[in-house]
Structure formats: C-alpha cells, structure tokens
Design a protein that fits this description.
Helix content is 25%, strand content 38%. By secondary structure, it is of the alpha/beta class. The protein has a single domain, classed as Rossmann fold (3-Layer(aba) Sandwich). The strands form 2 sheets. A 7-stranded mixed beta sheet has the order 7-6-5-8-9-11-10. The longest helix has 11 residues.
Amino acid sequence: MIRELAYHATDLGPLMLRVRPEPLIGGSDVFEVKLGEEFLMSSLFTAGEEALADLGLSGLQGKLDVVVGGLGLGYTAARALENRNVASLLVIEAFGEVIGWHMEKLVPAGEKLTGDPRCRFLEGDFFRLAKTGFDPSDPLRKFDAVLLDIDHTPDHHLDRNNAGFYTSAGLEKLKSRIKPGGRFAMWSNDESDDDFVNLLKTVFGIAEGHNVKFANPYTNELAVNSVYVATV
C-alpha cells in the first residue's frame, strides 16, 4: 500500500513524497519523489546519485568546500559527507518543502544530513545562483566541487528556463564559481553523451563521461545512468 508522506502544490506541478513496500526486495520500504507525473527519485535506485559524489570528489585533496545542486532524498549529499576531506557542504534546493522533509526526518537521510554540522541547506534556484554566486553571504566565494543532480539529462529539463545553463555561456559562469583544479560533476538519467562531454571540454579543459550500471529488479537487466566530470 502506498502511503503519501507529503503533498505540496508548486509552480511545476504537485510535489509528492510517498513510501511503499516493494515485494521485489522482500517488502522493504521504497521512498519515491514525484513532480506532477514524473518520478524524480526512488530510494530503490541510488547508484547514480552516490557515484556523482564519489566521482566528483575523487582525488581532490585538502579541506573541500562543496556545493550540491538538488537535495531530493539526499543520497548525493549524504555520500559527499562520507568523504573526510569535505569541510563544508552547501546543499541548494529549489523547494523549501523538500528541505522540510529532511528537517522533519521524513526521509532516511534526514537525520544524517541535519545532524552533520558541515551540512547547510539553502532554499534557492541553483541555476540563478550559478550566475550570481552560490553563497548569498559571500557572492564571490569559490568552491572546490559543484555536484549537480536536478534535470534528467543535459537536454531534458524539469523547467525549460534551465536550458541556458547547458551552453558555453552558462557553463562559463559556473566555471567562475569553482577554484582552479576544482570539479564540476553532473548526474544524468541517460548514458554519457559525447556532444555534451565535448562542450564541457571546450569550457573546462578536461572532461569525461562515466556510465554507471546498476541492477533493475523490474526488468532483471542492468540500467545505466551517467556522471559527467569536468576539471577546471
């Protein structure tokens, strides 16, 4: 039986948090986020979100200041906090209601994220802040890594207004928010796209796409997400 934990009306449609038992994994609870008719996230499939943190932070040394764009169920942020080099984590989420789910411990990662003093939530538009500065208290602040998990793919956007971010001009603005030697990493629901990798290379200099394979119990086959990683 599906239990609706939260329901909110938004400009992009109804935002829902729900939980249900999944027989294919022994009846364990699966948490799901929907926006309108689109499934944004499921706790059944987290390999891509966790790989985003692993690949985006891999090899970076010293005390790291990190931005996560998109909170969702919190798997990318929680994985990033497992990296001991992370000194601060700024999680930007457009929907204050989603931040509320974590503050109220409605989702499994809520306690971990709210209990870690390195983690701070910011309600805001990631794509607008990429132009003006991620930290409103210090607009010129630069970060060691920016990890993005909001749109489905570089050309499948939750909001059509996001499209300008995925251009040379938009990515150049983002690059100016990242320290030399720092990283931009982005999750995508599809396999890595060579055209987008090449665009990242023209802006950042170094970029690659990683395909992340994981089991799908509904199809009994491997599914594929991708993570793009670009280095300033």
